[in-house]
Amino acid sequence: MIAENTLDEIRVEIAQCQRCPLAAGRKNTVPGEGPIDAEIMFIGEGPGYYENEQGLPFVGQAGKFLDELLASANLKREAVFITNVVKCRPPGNRDPMPEELEACASYLDRQISAINPKVIVTLGRHSMGKYFTNAKISLIHGKATWVKGRLIVAMYHPAAGLHQPNLKPTIMADFRKLPDMILQAKKSEEIQKTAQQNDEETQHEDPTQLSFF
Fold it and tell me: Which residue of 87, 89, 111, 133 is 20 to 30 Å from 14, comparing CA positions?
């Protein structure tokens, strides 16, 4: 319940946010959607026209393609959390500006902390930049990397597959890796929990008393 309340609080704060100029041109904020216990979290770049109209993430053509990609990975949209690095639509769907990314950063960080997903998938260059500065998406897409104890996967934005059809097979192949990546994250979590339990048990054991005569 605490995490759910936290997400609700963040949603209210985003709806009232005036931290950057994007607030002046929005119709709706788009905080994101998905269950609090989502194992996987997708982070896109920013709301587009339809997202701004409905207040929901990925509901345009890119969203339809994302639904196809999720299905190809045996994932249901209602089981994953989807958000963006900025919560208001940039004019003309332009790239988010550095000051806009900075203004929204704390919202995203708090969402990640509340949900605590096992895997985070970044969709697009600006989302990727949160974890991989100066990296080229063409070189690291579809590869899972541990960042501060969390499995992060950089992928092309679904819109890239619509604008460049030659990328579609690559994007689909990357998404099909996700079930194995989630399993990898789960196994790592289980190993860490077991190690922690063993450490705690060792600490609670009585130290051996040695007598010297």
Answer: 133
Structural domains in the chain plus CATH codes: 2-186 (3.40.470.10)
Q: What is the mean pLDDT of residues 78-89?
A: 98
pTM over the 0.85 mark:
yes
Q: What is the dihedral of CA 56, 59, 62, 67, to 10 degrees?
A: 100
CA dihedral in degrees (58, 109, 142, 157; nearest 10)? 30
Q: Is 109 exposed, middle or buried (0-12, 13-18, 19+ CB in 10 A)?
A: exposed
3-state secondary structure of 95: coil
Provide the Cα torsion 142, 50, 78, 138; round to 10°.
Answer: 0
Look at residue 3 in the predicted model and tell me its pLDDT: 75
